[in-house]
Structures are given as structure tokens and as C-alpha cells.
Amino acid sequence: MPRAGLTTDRVVAAAADLADATGFDNVTVSALARHFGVKDASLYTHVRNLRDLRVRVALLAGGELIDEIAAAVAGRAGKEALAAFAGAYRSYALRHPGRYAATQIRMDQSLVADSPALRRTAEITHGMLRAYGLTEPDLTDAVRLLRSTFHGYCSLEATGGFGAPRDVRASWDKVVEALHVTLTHWPREGTRG
């Protein structure tokens, strides 16, 4: 019988908090059990195993992240939407380092297809990029450019990887401006020389 007060949602939320506090790689069933003052076995009525727990944290974090991005880009298009999207992404990654790390794990494609949050992420991202006139396969290429740029920048910033005296926010703004220029002048599939 599940321990009174423990639910799957509560367990996953605590795991996400633990990830932010100690790092996603340090989230274990044992650490979570200690947090709740229960034995490891008590948690297995809520999650199948460590992988299941981590995937659930990733899905929770992905939903939180896209909610923030959606609110930021609402009613905006083009450069304004890109800047809002980028700002919300960066803010979430820096405020929630463990949750953000969870969003980077590789997941089974069937889980991705079944996740409303991850489908919404694709819809919002593609919607923003369509304002630049992009269609497939350029849309996928542009998504990969944005994700790798945002992820790389946020990861370096979070670990203190930028040592130059220039303000990190000023550099971020330049990166977003450069991405806008790139998206505006995207080398469309079929028009490359």
C-alpha cells in the first residue's frame, strides 16, 4: 500500500526540487526516499525505477519550460518573439539547473509523441520559426540551431565558462540578434549553390 501522503506527482516534484538543489545526476531513488523519510521500496509504488523517475522529471520540466516560453512569446512575432523565446529559455535554465538538465536526456520517441508538453514545444517553436518563412526541412535545421545555441550558451554561463569582462547579458543579446539575422537570411533548401 502506498505511504499516506505520497503521490506520483509529489514524488516527481520532490525529485525535480532535488535536481535543482544537488544536480540532476544526483537524483536517485535512495536520495528521494531519504527526503521523504521512507524506505526506497515505498517509492516503487509511484515510479517503476530510476529511469522512470528521471523521465518523469524531464517531462515535468519540459512542461514548465514551454509554459514559460509560451507566455513570453504570446502575441509576438519575428525578432520580438525570438528574443522573448530566448529570454524565457535562458531564465528557466539558469533558475532551475537540475530541471533544465533533465530536459536534455534522450527519451524514447513514443514518450515524446505521447507528451502534450513536448508536442506543444514543437508547435510553439515551429510557429515562431514559420514567421521567418521556414518550412521543412529548413524548420528542423533551424530548431537544431536554436537548441544547440541556447543550450551551449546557458550551459557555459551556468558553469562560469565565460571569463571575459564583457557583460554576459550583452553577449546574449548579440547572440539573439545574430540568430535573427541568420533566420531572416536562411539558406533555404533547394536554393543552395
UniProtKB/TrEMBL annotation:
Keywords: DNA-binding, Transcription, Transcription regulation. InterPro entries: Homeodomain-like_sf, HTH-type_TetR-like_transc_reg, HTH_TetR, MT1864/Rv1816-like_C, Tet_transcr_reg_TetR-rel_C_sf. PROSITE patterns: HTH_TETR_2. Residues 5-65 form the HTH tetR-type domain. Signal peptide: none annotated. The keyword DNA-binding applies. Residues 28-47 bind DNA. Gene3D superfamilies: Homeodomain-like (1.10.10.60), Tetracycline Repressor, domain 2 (1.10.357.10). GO terms for molecular function: DNA-binding transcription factor activity; transcription cis-regulatory region binding. The keyword Ligase does not apply. This is TetR-like C-terminal domain-containing protein. It comes from Streptomyces rochei (Streptomyces parvullus).
